[in-house]
Each structure stands twice: as structure tokens, then as C-alpha cells.
């Protein structure tokens, strides 16, 4: 299938389904929001990033189902475009399976606080040239403070990367996020609604290893300041944000990130 035909198909699936009201979560971080029982969320997401001469893009379709009012499961499948400066590749990426369980929720006047556990398995199912040779597991904990005007989230995730058949193990990674948000003007359900977000995203990576020996030009720490917007109209939402690097301490000779961008269209039904 031609890539333009694929993009059209994914957009049609995500955007032309029946609608139902979405809730708020960070753009790059992890939030505690879960679907209502029996609800389905369809999301079409575009990501782009650049580090030195290397560029990557991905267009992903993600589907989520609410098993209960506190427990959701889902899956995501990306179509990836990779340009490392000397070679270009594209094709289906790794299928991801995920779940989130909200174990605590406290409601008061115009305020909801909640916390959730999340688990994602990133399989090794990508097409040749894009496969990484092993499955990865990401486990996380998130907290959310959502008021009528002010929002706040905090989350921590740990990514365990598997070892491939050659003995290469990509470095495990901590993902730490602090997020603040403001709704400049409270609106009713029938009106458009805008929430502005500012995230601090930190990634701490360990050295990759081959046969148990650390590889010098791998691992390190990067931090990003990430402004974004969450726009909704009734049952439809658009999320967009850019990660701007503000700190980098990478081991050996590595190109730090120049930028990362994410645009998401969400639809509940």
C-alpha cells in the first residue's frame, strides 16, 4: 500500500467514527485518565523528531477500550519513516499493547484528583529494517490534579528494553514528567475549550550493552521544556506540542535532540 493511501485510511478510521466527550491528559507525559465502561477511543497521532542528521517520523493509529470505569486496555500500530542521514527506510513499526488502571480517585467541588498504574508492551513485530530484535516493557505511575481552571500532572515510567539475538541490549530508560496546565476561560460543554500546557520531560538512559559489555557512545540524560495545547469541541480533541531541549548530558559521541513534535486527533464513542 502506498504511504499516502495508508495515511488516508488511518485518518478516515480515526476521525469519522461516532463521538463522545474526551478528558484531559498530558501530551508527552503520562496521565491517570481512563475511559468510561464500554467506551472506545480512536486516536491518530503524528510524531516527528530530529537529532543531528537523523530524522524520524511516525503516523500511528491507537485504539483504547474501557473495560470498567477505572480500567482500560488498548493497542497502537505506527507506520514509521526513518532517515539516518545515509539511508532511508519506511514501513510498519512495532505493535504496542497497553493497559491503565486508576486505583485512586477523589472528587470535590470543581476538582478531581486521581492516580493510575500503566503497563505497555512494545512487541518486536516491525518490518525488516525497522525491527529492534526484542520486545520492551514500560511500566508507569501517574498522578493528576484537574480543576476548573488549573491542571497538574506528575508521572514516572521505566522502560525495560529486551536483548536481541546478537546479544545487544539497548539501555533501559527512566521517563520523568511534571506538567502544568491552565484553562484561560472556563467554557460550557457545547463550546470550544482550550487548555494550555507546559511540560518538563526528563529522560535518563543507561548504557547499551553487547554481551554484557557497556557501549561507550550510548546512554545519558536529556531534558525538554514542552509547550502544548489541548483543544476540544464537544466530543473531539486535538493535542499538539513541541519538545524543546534545555539540557543534555549524553555519554561519548552522540547527537543530542534538536526537537520533537507531536500532533494527536482523539475521538471517543
Descriptive overview:
This protein is mainly beta. The protein has one domain (3-268): Porin. Helix content is 5%, strand content 60%. It contains one helix and 16 strands. The strands form two sheets. A twelve-stranded antiparallel barrel has the order 1-2-3-5-6-7-8-10-11-14-15-16. It has a three-stranded antiparallel beta sheet with strand order 9-12-13, with no helix packed on it. The longest helix is centred in the N-terminal third of the chain and has 13 residues, at 3-15. Residues 9-21 have low confidence and may be disordered.
Per-chain topology:
Layout: H1 3-15, E1 40-51, E2 54-66, E3 71-83, E4 88-92, E5 96-108, E6 111-122, E7 136-147, E8 150-161, E9 168-169, E10 173-182, E11 192-205, E12 209-210, E13 213-214, E14 220-233, E15 236-250, E16 259-268
Antiparallel strand pairs: 1-2, 1-16, 2-3, 3-4, 3-5, 5-6, 6-7, 7-8, 8-10, 9-12, 10-11, 11-14, 12-13, 14-15, 15-16
Rg (C-alpha, Å): 19 Å
Q: Given the C-alpha coordinates, what overall shape results? A: globular
User: Can you tell me the CATH architecture?
Assistant: Beta Barrel
The H-and-E topology, N to C, reads as: HEEEEEEEEEEEEEEEE
Count of helices?
1
Give, in spatial order, the strands making up the sheet with the most strands. 1-2-3-5-6-7-8-10-11-14-15-16
CATH homologous superfamily, by name?
monomeric porin ompg
Sheet/helix structural class: mainly beta
